[in-house]
Amino acid sequence: MSEDLLKAVIQLFAIVARERITDDERNNIKDFLGLHLNREAIKHYLDLFDELAKGSHDQPEQDSSVDAETAQFLDEWAKIMQISKQVNQALTMQQKLVLIIKIIELIFSDGTISERQENLIYYIGQALKVPRSDINELKNFVAGQDIDELASKNVLIIDEGYDEKPYPGPRIVEKNLTGLIAILRLSDSYFIKYLGISVVYLNSIHLKSRKIDVFPTGSTIRGDKLEPIYYSDIIGKFLTGEDTQKLTFTADHIFYHFKSGKAGLQNINIAEKGGKLVGIMGASGSGKSTLLNVLNGSEKPSSGRVQINGIDIHERPGEVQGILGYIPQDDLLMEDLTVFENLYYAARLCFGQLPKEVCAERVEKVLVQLGLSEIRDLKVGSPLQKTISGGQRKRLNIGLELLREPAILFVDEPTSGLSSRDSENIMDLLKELSLRGKMIFVVIHQPSSDIFKMFDTLLILDVGGFQIYYGNPAESVVYFRDIINAANKSQGACPECGNINPEQVFNIIETKVVNEYGRLTNTRKISPGQWYQYFKQRLKIQKVEHLREPLPIAQHIATRFQQIKIFAIRDSLAKLANKQYLIINLLEAPVLAFFIAFMVKYYNILMRENATYTFYDNENIPVFFFMSVVVALFFGLTVSAEEIFKDRKILKREQFLHLSRTSYLLSKITVLFFISAIQTLLFVVVGHLVLEIPLTEFRYWFILFSVACFANVLGLNISASFNSAVTIYILIPLLVIPQLLLSGVVIEFDKFNPKVTKPIGVPLMGNLMSSRWAFEAYMVTQYKDNPFEKQFYELDKTIAQAEFKRVFLIPELESRLSYCINNHSQWRSRNAENLSYTLSLLQSEIRNELSEVGEANFPDIDNLFAGKFDSTVYEQTTKFLSTLKQFYLLRHNRARDERETLLNTLTATPTDMARYEKMRQRYQNKAVADAVRNLNTVNRIVEFDGRIIQRIYPIYQEEHKPRYWLDFSANLYQPTKHFAGMIFDTLHFNLAVIWSMTIMLYITLYFDVLRKIMKMVENRRYRRVERI
Question: How far is it, in rounded angstroms, from Cα 272 to Cα 265?
Fold first, then answer.
């Protein structure tokens, strides 16, 4: 209290005491000053009181129009208003109530009260904003000398209980108390008055009879023959008659073992009723957080039961949904959202049945309750880049649970990292909740004396999960001092100030053995097991009778569809609020597109005058297509790689709230797909504009979008599986590099190590790469489906396939046939195997051709095997192959003539010629055409596994020879794919494969397959280390 304020209060005392000043009045003022001053300063203010009281007898200057009494009243009223204004700005309500009590005691000190003094009490109360009803309660409490005079619903009586008359307020019977103790409750402030001759102590301070004292939080009333009466007992009696949710919470014989087999909790027992603040303390590694997780239902105990109103929360979790709240030690805030938005979207998720306006009102109410209204529109920020203080962050975390109003709240280390003032504010808030009937469990480390005394019950754990104390916090120091037989062991609090030092408890628990050299060893004097045995012998946990009242339904969470919508909006707003994230993700696509496109925009300037760029002549277009696929993979992975990792703490809370994981994942995928759609669209637009690729080709964008979506879900898998952002980003190159290598572009598939691939088709490892499917789709559709080539594709395909058969395949068969006739006489010799193999190959390939020309054209097909092959069969086969060659020659010439006719029609006039050339330059690219036709291959035909494989013209090859029903193997760039007995266009089939892979990755994400594999590997390694 400041000097000016104290002088104002003394002046107020002087006004009240103006009629007469007795020794009792001076003693009352001296007691009040003793609350705020040391002994030396008290005399100065008593002298000031005497001087002011003497001056108050002087009559004020009178106005001729008013009498003396009225003038005096006006003067006193003016002074009271002036002093009260100053007091209202400096004192809390409890301090103002203490001041009024002292004023009333001052008036009653001589046993009489004048009309003027009684009026002054009400005037002062009105000026100090204290309700008239509270003034009456205080006046009766000061004046009351027996139970009848003290009777009130706001006054608790502690007495022997011999009077059987009904009492309107709460009552505690204490047989060994002479007289009575009265406790008044006003505005959550408590005052104690003792009337009797017994020796009674309040926090080790002797209570004087008829004297009123503040009854502070955590207080204990003791006497020579009295059982201790705790603050929580008093509060519990007041709350019993109020309309609060009736709850019982019990934990019976709780044991918990980790998967490694190590004991986490050993025989924990708890029994509490609603309206209690329970502290959980213990050394590091004693199992505090584990106990909290078991009690809130997050972890299931190895044995034992946790019950609320008789309902086992682990066996029947649906019945306690919404009853339990949990505030972990870590932040649960969306850093890029405002304070209001964090609470608002939490409310929308928890109260799906409420309209948006009602949710907003509920949030505003909580903001006012938490004192966060002024910062409602501030972005929360990270703990390192703060925009709100640490205490405000803690209050906001508590607000996330206050929205739901759970009946039982579990809080893990709410004061860690906070200043002492912020810590007390947080604990005041939790204490207030408990006073409103909530049950609060708090894990706390190194609390101050004031915080320590706030707890109604204290549970202490020791290393190994042993319960070594359960009871009143104030008694804990006495309990442990008594066990070690310490000097003055009955003294738990400081007799002068009433402070309790919780560190004493842990200093006693962890006392070390001293060796013969006087040095502390690492061995404790009393082991955790011994402390547990003391606990079992000395303390008995009072049983509570389970209430059978139904538990209220505290929340109706949003439907799954609503959750998807809310999650998506919340995530989108967070991303939009992060300007750096937004700018980078929007600019990287056009910047990379421009850079890549500009660098690959090639045209030959050697030996050409006025050389200009054309899409047709650009040899780097396949490179651009490949880089586009790589960039899409990169975009998808980088934008998603940290998404679930950064939300992991929030996800744990939302799992506790029984929100849908499916809804969260689908919302995350929706937002990421939208971002990828924008990124790939910007990339395609910029890149194609620079390279003069027509923007009307929607399919190019959809290919890149599909790859980016695949990478999104792949990134979410690694984001959900690893516990370090550094590890996640290290993994991105490990995921991208195989996509580059196994795409078939950097190294052709037939030139890989023969141990991992075959010289034909695409190897299995290549088929697992989305880049291979995307690049093939890009190249095939660019060549086959562009407007220019569409005019000629069917004719070009006929010409190419006829040419291949006539120039490559049939000559090869003729060569193999000559080998057979030259060696058929030796079919029983060492060449017999080769001869049989060659004949089998001839039979297989000719049978394929018969499906084209008709089996009637070569009836001797079945004679092409070692036992029947002779010169006659040879001659018939030679004749058939010659006829077949003529057949393909005619087909080739006919298709070529049709193409020439079409070409002549399209270029009939110079205008048509210019249009034709312009269309070719705009839509077709020579490098792409060469690549998909594979004209540069050395081996245009190869033999493998009893088949002759076509290597040239894959873009025209539509023959499929599936080995089984689901076989889709084919050469790279084939225009169609065979699958399940049907033929699909390569573009559509490849896109379907990419999306199938994406769906498979979503399934692994949903079931957390990768994380479970990683955890299994870690557990195996951990067990191996333990065995060593």
Answer: 19
The reported pLDDT for the residue numbered 231 is 84
Closest CA to 799 of 903, 879, 880: 903
Question: What letter would DSSP give residue 497?
Answer: T
pLDDT score recorded for residue 553: 65
Cβ neighbors of 482 (< 8 A, separation 6 or more) are 489, 490
**Rounded distance between C-alpha atoms, residue 890 and residue 880, angstroms:** 15
Annotate 227-262 with DSSP letters as a single string. Answer: PPEEHHHHHHHHHHTS-----EEEEEEEEEE-TTS-
Cα distance between residue 586 and residue 138, in whole Å: 68
Rounded Cα distance, 530 and 525, in Å: 10
The CA distance from 181 to 195, in Å, is: 6
DSSP strand pairing (941-944 vs 982-985)? unpaired
Residue 701 three-state SS: helix
Contact 469, 304 (CB under 8 A): no
- Asked if 892 and 884 count as a contact pair (C-beta separation under 8 A), the reply is no
Residue ranges of domains in the chain: 1-140, 560-784, 787-923
pLDDT for position 322: 86
Q: For residue 375, give the DSSP letter.
A: G
> What pLDDT is stored for residue 1000 in this prediction?
98
Task: Please report the pLDDT score of residue 572 as a whole number.
Answer: 96
**CB-facing half-sphere around the CA of 295: CA atoms within 13 A:** 30
Do the beta carbons of residue 443 and residue 280 sit within 8 Å? Answer: yes
**509-512 contacts: CB < 8 A, separation 24 or more?**
509/283, 509/460, 509/462, 509/468, 509/480, 510/283, 511/484
Q: Is 710 helix (H, G, I), strand (E, B) or coil?
A: helix
d(CA 985, CA 949): 21
What does DSSP say about strands 189-195 and 180-186: parallel, antiparallel, or unpaired? antiparallel
List all residues 6 or more positions away from 138 whose beta carbon is below 8 Å from its beta carbon: 97, 100, 101, 104, 184, 186
β-strands 512-514, 324-327 pairing: unpaired
SS3 371: coil
**Cα angle, residue 451 at apex, residues 446 and 456 outer, rounded to 5°:** 110
pLDDT of residue 509: 93
Nearest to 274 by CA among 507, 433, 36: 433
User: How high is the pLDDT of residue 55?
Assistant: 63
C-alpha 850, offset from chain centre: 65
Question: 3-class SS at 355?
Answer: coil
User: Whole-prediction pTM value?
Assistant: 0.84
Q: Using 50 as the pLDDT threshold, list the residues of the chain that sit under it.
A: none
Render the burial of 139-148: b for 16+ CB within 10 Å, e for the rest: bbbbebeebe
Cα atoms found within 13 Å of the Cα of residue 396, Cβ hemisphere only = 31
Output the six-digit token pair for 970. 């084919």
Q: Are 215 and 183 in contact (CB under 8 A)?
A: yes
- The rounded Cα 445 to chain-centroid distance in angstroms is 24
The full length of the chain comes to: 1028
3-state secondary structure 917-972: HHHHHHHCCHHHHHHHHCCCCCCCEEEECCEEEECCCHHHCCCCCCCCCCCCCCCC
Vertex 141, ends 135 and 142: CA angle to 5°? 90
1-140: in CATH 1.10.3680: yes
Alpha helices in 832-870 (DSSP H): 832-853
How far apart, in whole angstroms, are the C-alpha atoms of residue 235 and residue 231? 6
Q: Which amino acid is at 878?
A: T
H-assigned helices in 542-609? 560-577, 579-600
Question: Could you tell me which of 797, 792, 811 has the C-alpha nearest to residue 892?
Answer: 797
SS3 512: strand
Alpha-carbon distance values, 347 to 27, 333, 406, 410, 565 (Å) = 55, 13, 13, 19, 14
* Cβ contact 703:991 at 8 Å: yes
